[in-house]
Amino acid sequence: MTPLHFSFTAAFVLGLTGLAFHRTHLLSALLCLESMMLSLFMALALWTLQTESSNYATAPVILLAFSACEASTGLALIVATARTHGTDQLKNLNLLRC
Fold first, then answer.
1. Hey, which CATH number is domain 3-92, 3.30.530.20, 1.10.287.3510, 2.60.40.420, 1.10.630.10?
2. Signal sequence: where (predicted)?
3. Whether 46 contacts 4, CB under 8 Å
């Protein structure tokens, strides 16, 4: 495994462990998701450059578009949660107790 592949894998795994273990606030969970998407984007963009294939050139742009949609949806959820519950802590987001 090259150091470049190791760094992208380590960035993805760090984002995944942050998502798994530090779920106190909705904002921290969304930031971990964004770091995972960023590492996937960088890996996919460099993979496209390394293979020198024009067939996969649009894949990083499509992934970036999905990441932007995910970020905007997450921001809207944070705003809606802060307005209804008063906080973005995940322990207060119980669907049975609205």
1. 1.10.287.3510
2. none
3. yes
Task: Render pLDDT for 15-63 as a digit per residue (tens, 0 to 9).
Answer: 999 989 987 888 898 999 999 999 999 998 888 888 887 788 888 889 9
Cα separation, 87 vs 6, whole angstroms: 37
For the entire predicted model, the pTM comes to 0.82
Predicted confidence at residue 62, as pLDDT, reads: 92
Domain boundaries defined on the chain: 3-92
Q: What is the pLDDT of residues 66-76, one digit of tens each?
A: 999 999 999 99
Distance between CA atoms of residues 59 and 43, nearest Å: 11
Q: Which residue do the tokens 């999905």 mark?
A: 66
Query: Would you say the C-alpha torsion 45, 33, 66, 79 has a positive or negative sign?
Result: negative
Query: Could you give the CA distance from residue 95 to residue 79 in angstroms, rounded to a whole number?
Result: 17
